[in-house]
Amino acid sequence: MIELIKTSDGSTSLYLPELNETYHSKHGALQETQHVFIHNGLQLFHSQSLAILEIGFGTGLNALVTYQQHNNLQLNIHYETTEAYPLQWEQASMMNYPEMLSAPLLHTVFKQIHTCPWGENITLSPTFTFKKRLQRFETITDKQQFDLIYFDAFGAQVQPELWEEDIFKRMYNALKKNGILVTYAAKGSVRRAMQACGFTVERLPGPPMKREMLRARKD
């Protein structure tokens, strides 16, 4: 049974007892998203069209914060997100993200991304289109479609098969030249799997209570 939890920065997340795994860092769900995916990913781009692929839609936090931030960066975004085991809106609606972002109007967008049809392009604004893909990560076959990947799968301790060379080869193929992948993970085995696929990988300071994270580039 999924349990609602509050993380250290006040933002909510979900806990899966059968996996002993949370959807986000217990030390701050919102802070983790802002540090890993926004500060070290999205904010590298400015004043351009951008295609993003998210690995693990989960509660929708990464998509919502990206939507909130994209106008500030003058970005025209096409956002695709993959999820094999989606939440119901009744579960996602318990999240307090619009309130934490001090933007109650985001609640409409948050509900829309959770309740819109799978597999269809949805226009959230004139500068942001969105598509959910009901898909296992190991079946991704995109070729040179994306500028940025948010790799936000469950941790390697519970789903090690999602952090191996085969998956990162699929990520490498999905990126355009000079595309970037960011993830909260920092394990040496993950870094080596990325490098084996051709990525140039750098270690960066991690979010609160995590020493490092990884950013990979397709040269």
The CATH class is Alpha Beta
In total, the number of strands is 11
Give the mean pLDDT. 97
Q: Domains counted in the coordinates: how many? A: 1
Share in β-strands: 25-35%
- Our measurement of the CA-to-CA distance between the termini, rounded to an integer number of angstroms, reads 43 Å
CATH topology: Rossmann fold
| Number of distinct helices | 7
Computed structural class: alpha/beta
CATH homology superfamily: Vaccinia Virus protein VP39
Helix content: 25-40%
Give the CATH architecture. 3-Layer(aba) Sandwich
Order of helices and strands: EEEHEHEHHHEEEHEHEE
Rg, Cα atoms, Å: 16 Å
Question: How would you sum up the major sheet?
Answer: 8 strands, mixed
Strand order of the largest sheet: 6-7-5-4-8-9-11-10
Shape: globular
The low-confidence runs, each spanning 5 or more residues with pLDDT under 50, are none
Descriptive report:
The chain has a single domain, classed as Vaccinia Virus protein VP39 (Rossmann fold, 3-Layer(aba) Sandwich), CATH 3.40.50. Helices cover 26% and strands 30% of the residues. It is of the alpha/beta class and 219 residues long. Helix 2 (61-70) links the parallel strand 4 and strand 5 (75-83). The chain has helices at residues 29-39, 61-70, 89-92, 97-100, 106-115, 165-174, 188-196, and strands spanning 3-6, 12-16, 21-22, 48-55, 75-83, 122-125, 128-134, 146-151, 175-183, 200-205, 212-217.
